[in-house]
């Protein structure tokens, strides 16, 4: 297991999350990206690889922004073999715990997908929960931010995704690395590898309409249409391991088998009691006669 990253004064923690709180439902997932985040140390403190961070992208809400990030991730697929391990991909930790990337060049407009012809970019998604991923642009290019807290934010960032696995490591470790007064990490934090997948929606418009219907129901008080952050904390293999350990501890089968064994033992004693206790009593009588 990887050792914890060095931390400064903690600003965020997954322990503070209310895992029962219901947030507004998520839009349809059009892409999924996994980032392998590595904290690069010194010769005396070797690099520590974190659990992969899984991010769902919402192309029916912001098709161009989602595709820009997807194509950015594609350029990092072979980054593990980079000749310069001191490159910084996540370059700043804001006071709120938001993790900010370095600038990168967005994809040209002609490279965008057909989704852009069906949906317009909008600001419908907000920074209302930990794990939101948004994009900002300026004269230097684009940069993305992963938010480790849910708080109102006024700015031009476009929310395009959500961390749906690995949120615990992101909040407890990456957001709390040692940094200077400007939020720059003392040691580089890099993206060592990525993997991507496209979720082919049979009918993107209908899927988006169903999302809007669920959102309206949630806003009208039907909280069961919402989602919690509980399943977002761990990466899939970590979650499977915890579920397995829990099931092993709480599964009723061992108790059922114990009960059946006890019943079988009681039945055997009742059926063969004369043989069992008869031999015992005859030995006692023979001892007395002697």
TrEMBL record:
Keywords: Isomerase. InterPro entries: Cyclophilin-like_dom_sf, Cyclophilin-type_PPIase_dom. One of its GO terms (molecular function) is cyclosporin A binding. One of its GO terms (cellular component) is endoplasmic reticulum. It catalyses: [protein]-peptidylproline (omega=180) = [protein]-peptidylproline (omega=0). Residues 53-196 form the PPIase cyclophilin-type domain. Residues 1-24 are annotated as: Disordered. Residues 8-24 have a biased composition (Basic and acidic residues). The keyword Isomerase applies. GO terms for biological process: protein folding. It comes from the Eukaryota. PANTHER family: PEPTIDYL-PROLYL CIS-TRANS ISOMERASE, PEPTIDYL-PROLYL CIS-TRANS ISOMERASE CPR4-RELATED. This is Peptidylprolyl isomerase protein cpr8. It comes from Saccharomyces pastorianus (Lager yeast).
